[in-house]
Amino acid sequence: MSLNGDAFGSLAALFTTGSGGEGQSARTTDGPTLGAITTVLVGNLPVMAGLWTTQFADAVARIGGPTALVRFERDDVTIELLRADGRQVPPAGPAAVSRWLPRAASTVRRWLICVPADTSPADVLAVGKEILLMTGADEAAVTGAYLRLKYLADEGINSGTPIERVGLVVVGATPEQAAHAAARLGDAARSFLGVDVETVACLPRIERVESSARATYPAEECPPIAQFTRELEAARASASHRFDSDNSAPPLTMTTEPAAVEPKFPSMSQPFASRSEPVSHGDSAMETIHAPQAGSHAHSAHSAHSAHTTHPAPTRSSPAFAALPTADLPLKLVPLLRGLRPLGISCPMAPDVELALDDERRMHIVGRTDQLARIRTVRTWATMHRELLGMAFAELKDGFEVRERVLLGDAREAISLHGTGVLLDVLVIAETPTGRVQVVVPLNDPMTCG
Predict the structure, then answer these.
(1) CB-based burial label for 433 (10 Å; 0-12, 13-18, 19+)
(2) What's the CA gap between 144 and 162, in Å, rounded?
(3) What is the 3-state secondary structure (H, E, C) of the chain?
(4) What is the pLDDT of residues 328-386, one digit of tens each?
(5) Assigned fold of 7-260
(6) What is the C-alpha separation between 91 and 89, in angstroms, rounded?
(7) Max Cα–Cα distance, the chain, nearest Å
(8) Which of 20, 234, 336, 390 could form a disulfide with 397 if both were Cys (CB 3.0 to 4.6 A apart)?
(9) Do the beta carbons of residue 36 and residue 249 sit within 8 Å?
(10) Mean pLDDT of all residues in 384-409
(11) Nearest to 399, CA basis, from 357, 348, 343, 350
(12) Would the pTM count as exceeding 0.70?
């Protein structure tokens, strides 16, 4: 940022709204995309670099879903989760981060890996091919950014893997200043280095972020940068095989200011079909009973017991239970879950995943065991459309809380979903003196889902 003779005024401007009152939390341009794992090079930034990297991570999370910001420094590593709905990072300890990655890979959608300023170009290129440069807009910052790109470009040519594109985030500047700095840097990089520089975002000032968890670990307890990325990629690949072939996060397009995104909204004229008849299994009709909801924080075993005590006491022989195969779960799942009512719309990217509201005006995204990736997609879609959803549904206008929920037909399927942040319910069949009934039993609650 250019000096203006008033250091205090310049610093204050980074935290306050300009005279235009535009409320620009993250102005972005059309076209550039971010992959699931991005290497972030931090250049010359106004104030503290950590504040700006967190700002950008929050802007990414606002559009793309739960995002992890991993900052490698000389003596320690800091991991911060943005907009992750209460998910936690592990306590410090030997190999704690490595053990946590497989679980985190199934819930965190974007990973931003910040490398130290003194990291060699060879080590930067070894981390990954998706590279993003954060810089200020003043003369020194732009010059420093060009030199950083030159070192990277030279190393890429020497190693036989030339870089073709680098993303750019300009911070602490107005959109006009950012555009001017990006044009200068882009022209020079393209003309002399053969590298295309694409502006991903402009962050004019520091604003409030939604951080879910943050912890710092000694460097010796964490894998080095390149190894960390390899372990993360392996964990993501493993997660995609466990849940869905499309579990990997699609490229994130930074299109417009997140708060003003207005993509096409699906038609609301086709509500879900309500289910008034009893759920059947085989040739015999059975009544569906609901155990107390997971939101009551009761242990699942106690919940199941409470469900049974609402019926006549069984005979001396123990009641028989049978797991219902996933293939035999009914077409619509929401009618089986007490306290939920269908929202009446569906996400166009995953129309088979159901949306519902509970009595506390929370949105529930309900699916089956093999639909976790599509549930995550619907969550991102709902977050992007939260303003339009609030206009369509009065219950969502004043607050927007989303819960992901999976209904199981076999309790053993919960093993692979433990700790993913998803509410789990299982539908079982119970033999009672009055006949066979279906019982919906919660297996966890918002405090224990991960």
Answers:
(1) exposed
(2) 20
(3) CCCCCCHHHHHHHCCCCCCCCCCCCCEECCCCEECCEEEEEECCCCCCHHHHHHHHHHHHHHHHCCEEEEEECCCEEEEEEECCCCCCCCCCCCCHHHHHHHHHHCCCCEEEEEECCCCCHHHHHHHCCCEEEEECCCHHHHHHHHHHHHHHHHHHHHCCCCCCEEEEEEECCCHHHHHHHHHHHHHHHHHHHCCEEEEEEEECCCCCCCEEEEEEEEHHHCCCHHHHHHHHHHHHHHHHHHHCCCCCCCCEECCCCHHHCCCCCCCCCCCCCCCCCCCEECCEECEEEECCCHHHCCCHHHHHHHHHCCCCCCCCCCCCEEECCHHHCCCCCHHHCCCCEECCCCECCECCCEEEECCCCCEEEEECHHHHHHHHHHHHHHHHCHHHHHHHCHHHCCCCCEEEEEEECCHHHHHHHCCCCCEEEEEEEEEECCEEEEEEEECCCCCCCC
(4) 788 899 988 988 999 889 998 889 999 999 888 889 999 998 888 889 889 989 888 88
(5) Rossmann fold (3.40.50)
(6) 7
(7) 88
(8) 390
(9) yes
(10) 85
(11) 357
(12) no
Segments of the chain assigned to CATH 3.40.50: 7-260
Nearest Cα residue to 14 out of 56, 43, 51, 61: 51
The two structure tokens encoding residue 450: 């991960």
Top-confidence residue, 243 or 79: 79
Is the pLDDT reported for residue 143 higher than 50? yes
Q: 86 is written with which tokens?
A: 């209460």
Whether 36 has a pLDDT exceeding 70, the answer reads yes
Residues whose CB falls within 8 Å of the CB of residue 330, separated by 6 or more in sequence, listed in order: 275, 279, 336
Strand 252-253 to strand 33-34: parallel, antiparallel, or no bridges (unpaired)?
antiparallel
* Mean pLDDT, residues 131-160 taken together: 91
The answer to whether residue 168 scores a pLDDT higher than 80 is yes
Tell me the two tokens of residue 253: 């397009």
pLDDT tens track for 209-247: 888 888 999 999 999 999 999 999 999 888 765 444 444
Length of the chain: 450
Q: For residue 61, what are its two tokens?
A: 């999370």
pLDDT for the residue 394: 83
